[in-house]
Amino acid sequence: MKPAPVAEAVASSSEPNEVLAILPVTRIPVGMRDLSLGVLATLATAFALSWAQTLLVPLLLGVVITYTLSPVVYWLERIRIPRVVGTVIVMASVLVAVAVSGYSLRGQLQTIIEQLPAATAKLTTSIAQLRTNQGGNLQKIQSAATDVESAAANAVSGTTPPRRTATHVIVDPPKPKLSDFQWKSSMGAIGAAGQATMVVFLVFFLLLGGDTFKRKLVRLAGPTLSKRKITVTILDDINRSIQKYMLMLVATNLLVMLLSWIAFRFIGIDNAGAWAVAAGLLHIVPYLGPAVAAGATAMVAFMQFDSAPMALLTGGASLAIATLIGTVVTTWATGRIAQMNAAAVFISLLVWGWLWGIWGMLLSIPIIVITKVVAQHIEPLHPLAELLGE
């Protein structure tokens, strides 16, 4: 049997370079190679974004809040107030407004906190009764099925099988320790306070810097005038889009608070103001926030009235208000501001929610707005802008 031509040529070659030249080379198609590199780059980027969440979330929050407050600082600067003084005035006003709002609602929040043990006990009792009723019905069904099976077996064999006693095995789940819960809650509160402090200082220094970073980015864009004009246009469009979006967000959330307060007062919910504020704040998070608000208010109504129809009415009213504002007003305004299609916005919400949780859902629309603005002015990214557009 004769050896193969390649094997015979390798055996007769004495130099390694000659052997490498003889061996066949497997070439990967260019399209497949680019696709593989793209998938690997996407996975690496997702991992990096998830790993850097602690750094990037406060940074993006600070940038978005800075875009929101910068027009007020510019207005104070135009009326001859120094930028340092204007920045201090704006930041102090925001912090005082937050503190006053929290202080004015402290009574209602304290009442809600004091009612939590009784509400928890009542909800536990209701769930236990529901499970007992369901268990009784299920036991009846199982007993009837056993009787039918026994009757069928007796009809076939003519004998009566011996009755077996039922054996119940109860496994007690491990009880959570209160100390562990308190420790985790304390660490979470400390972490949230630390991130909030970081955001406050970041916003202060960004407002104090003014156009410093904008001028630096323009200089870094390149020596040509065209590149600098493109950079200025991108930054100005981002500034206008974020400011319009934040103004719309504040207006819609205030509207949700007002309508929720009217609905809760009409139904007769205790502490209607606190729950209306909670519904407005939760409305900031798309889709998930209104669902949480509806579930919470429905549970409160059930605890107060001990009636399932009242719970459904309260939760349905909260969800209807959030759906009306979110679907009609927010969607229309977002489309007018960024001119994006709803599918792209929803996919962005899913992606950033998967990466960063609640903060990702909160920041998903500003991120996609910035992405679309940048893609519109950079020619290689025009397909992305077309994909995100209407």
SSE pattern, N- to C-terminal? HHHHHHHHHHHHHHH
Strand content: under 5%
Mean pLDDT across all amino acids? 75
- The low-confidence runs, each spanning 5 or more residues with pLDDT under 50, are none
- The rough form would be described as globular
The percent range for helix content is over 70%
What's the number of extended β-strand segments?
0
Structural class estimated from helices and strands: mainly alpha
Note the main sheet.
none
Assembly form of the protein: single chain
What can you tell me about this protein's structure?
- With 390 residues, this protein is mainly α.
- Among the domains are: 50-104, no CATH class; 106-120 and 218-390.
- 83% of the residues lie in helices and 0% in strands.
- The protein is built from 15 helices and no strands.
- The chain has helices spanning 5-12, 16-22, 30-51, 53-78, 83-104, 106-157, 178-209, 212-220, 225-267, 272-282, 288-305, 308-338, 342-356, 358-377, 382-388.
- Helix 9 (225-267) packs antiparallel against helix 12, helix 9 (225-267) packs antiparallel against helix 14 (358-377) and helix 14 packs across helix 15 (382-388).
- The model has no long low-confidence stretch (mean pLDDT 75).
Keywords:
mainly alpha; 390 residues; globular; single chain
In short:
With 390 residues, the chain is mainly α. It is 83% helix and 0% strand.
Note the topology.
Elements: H1 5-12, H2 16-22, H3 30-51, H4 53-78, H5 83-104, H6 106-157, H7 178-209, H8 212-220, H9 225-267, H10 272-282, H11 288-305, H12 308-338, H13 342-356, H14 358-377, H15 382-388
Helix pairs in contact: 4-5, 4-7, 4-9, 4-14, 5-7, 8-9, 9-10, 9-12, 9-14, 10-11, 11-12, 13-14, 14-15
